[in-house]
Amino acid sequence: MADRPEPHTTTLHDQPFPELLGYPCDVVVSSDGQWIASSSVLHRCSRVAVYRAADLSCAHLLTFTTEAESIAFHPTLPLLAIGLDNGDEYDRKGGLTLLECDTGHRVDFADPAWGIEPVRWLDDHTLELNFFTMDNEGAHWTARATVVRENWRNLPSDALDLTALDRTPHTPEIPRVYDCISPALPLLRTLAERAGRSYDAQGGVGAVAGLERVSLAG
After folding, report:
1. Is omega for the bond preceding 118 within 30 degrees of 0, making it cis?
2. H helices of the chain, where?
3. What is the dihedral of CA 169, 175, 180, 182, to 10 degrees?
4. 58: how many CB neighbours lie within 10 A of its CB?
5. How far, in whole angstroms, is CA 81 from its chain's centroid?
6. pLDDT at position 173, please?
7. What residues pair up with 148 in beta bridges, in sequence order?
8. Angle at 84 between CA 157 and CA 174, to 5 degrees
9. What b/e string do you get for 158-176 counting C-beta neighbours within 10 Å, with b at 16 or more?
10. Does 175 score more than 60 pLDDT?
11. Is residue 174 within 8 Å of 168, Cβ to Cβ?
């Protein structure tokens, strides 16, 4: 019996950033320009992908069952901070993930009662965390804390207790502070063009293959 021919496939979209599934939410670039990080959030699930800027290859892909609404690179290190919030109105939880892009070292810290959004680096040593929760009556509550460390590299899993941080409470009338974030899609298009590629956030089907017809007749 002759070998069956391989099915023919045609690639529809040979574009970078496929890990974002066509839904980029936030994009940040490391201070040295070597790393690109982008989040993709879909109702209480999210991905954070880290790419090498030179060729747009994916170096790290992190998946969460919470919303990674806020991502921020350290001012000088290839260190990405990710704020997490589960989005549950009645059982709020969150956390902080730190990823060293060059080594892959990752450490996760949890908060059992507050979501974290946004995260901001104030300087080389200081990380600002903005906490958010809701009470049983549906009122919004926010608080802010800073973490100061001389060295942010290779942190162990017990390096930080989020629940023990000295937080400054905010009344519900005071909004949370966000950095000015550029729209994700235009920035990703620009970064793709610099690497000689194009990007239009096409998600969904990436390729179609014709299947060989098989007769079920005896």
Report:
1. yes
2. 184-194
3. 120
4. 15
5. 9
6. 54
7. 126
8. 120
9. eebebeebebeebeeeeee
10. no
11. no
Q: Per the structure block, which two tokens stand in for 209?
A: 């293959």
CA distances from 59 to 68, 177, 178 (A): 18, 30, 27
Q: Supply 135's token pair.
A: 């009470």
Q: Per this entry, what is the length of the chain? A: 218
Instruction: Write the pLDDT tens digit of every residue in 187-215.
Output: 999 999 999 999 987 654 444 445 455 44
Let me know: does 71 contact 82? Beta carbons within 8 Å: yes
Long-range contacts of 52-59 (CB under 8 A, 24+ apart): 53/29, 53/191, 53/194, 53/195, 54/195, 55/195, 56/16, 56/17, 56/191, 56/192, 56/195, 56/197, 58/19, 59/35, 59/101, 59/104
3-class DSSP state of 215: coil
Q: What is the pTM of this model?
A: 0.82
Q: Are 121 and 72 in contact (CB under 8 A)?
A: yes
| pLDDT at res. 3 | 55
What's the pLDDT tens digit per position in 141-167? 889 999 999 999 999 999 999 999 999
pLDDT at 126 over 60: yes
- Other Cβ atoms within 10 Å of 26 Cβ, number: 21
Amino acid 131: pLDDT = 93
Give the Å distances, CA to CA, from 57 to 16, 75, 104.
Answer: 8, 23, 15
Distances from the Cα of 180 to the Cαs of 26, 27, 28, 38, 155, in angstroms? 11, 12, 12, 16, 29
